[in-house]
Amino acid sequence: MDSSHFEDITSSNRKRKAPDSIMVTCKRTKFMAKYYQQIFSMLDSVIFYIAKHPKTATLYLKMVKTCKYFFFKNPIIIIDCLYTRYGKWGVNEKPLSLTKYNCKYWITDNIIASASEFVDKNIFSPIIPKLYQCDVKYLSLLDQIISFNDLSLLISSAEFINFVLVIDILYTICGKWIFNEKLLDLIKYNCKYWITDEVQDTCKNIFSPIIPKLYQCDAKRLSLSYQIISFNDLSLLISSAEKIHLNNVIVKNCDSVIPLEDIVAIAVNAKKMFVHQLQITSKTMKELTKLSHFLKLDDLNLQNLCEVFDIDAFYSYMKKNQHTKFSIGFDPLISDAFKNRLEAIVDEILETNEFDYRPPEINFTGLDSQKRGKLLRIFYSH
After folding, report:
1. Structural domain harbouring 316
2. Which domain of life, per UniProt (predicted)?
3. Number of domains in the chain
4. What is the pTM of this model?
5. Long-range CB pairs of 66-71, under 8 A, 24+ apart, other chains included
6. CA dihedral for 28, 31, 35, 40, sign (positive or negative)
């Protein structure tokens, strides 16, 4: 090894002075003050590998104390507790500029970081490339904006976690929650989740275990399929949603099934709704028209309706409707008498020359294809 190289490093380090880290500089200078050529009993390649791949922080410290070669080949600063104070990173009650020194950091126990006093809330991005390893057991993050990849490096070893994870789009594939195209075990981490944009779920009864983990749900788009979900759980998810897709969803309150009108009642910000095979009662349409925000819906698509749906109440409201685009479809098993009533409504719409309301799309098995085609043209042109 070239000892003159280390002497040059030592000389250059003596010239550097940092008022906020005098103690760190002094210790580094003292550590590098003397160097002796080493002759190891093992091959240089083996020693080099050991230097580059320490298994634990304790082992690395022992190696460095034994021989400075290991530090020069792989300079790592071991930090047990990393925290922020007054807008700066700190260690052992002293400020530490993590980006200043040409070395890596190995954090072993705690990270307690708040970005409340930082102008840039993404305080981890500059230091993530400087992390050699993070083995912390306690992780506390407040007022942070952090990427999922950066968080993954910090959180994997943590046993106690104190933070709220903000998720923009959360969805399921094959019964697993996915965030940022990666599997996310929502139960594993001791933290809360804040969903901001979208929730998509097609797996049965998967929400119940994670509802207690939700800090807040501001999702603008909510898509649920083949779910059995409690009314209370749905209330947490649907209140902020503007686009709602409910396909074969059973909403329960204790043992009773909640009808569509009660679901729409809590969807106060809804603009577009697609509903397939939800609980309908004879009072559904009349109850819906009593909701002030129902009158402001842009689109309502109701599919697989049964005969219990009050088509006359719908027809009466439809002829006054100036705003909402209605699209309704019926179960193939409806009776011939009900089909005749539907066709009479379709015929009246087709015979109308000028509309002072928004004509709906109505679809049912047995409707003549030419009538359906004409009705669709009217529907899309208004």
Report:
1. 290-382
2. Eukaryota
3. 2
4. 0.67
5. 67/38, 68/6, 68/31, 68/32, 68/35, 69/1, 69/38, 71/31
6. negative
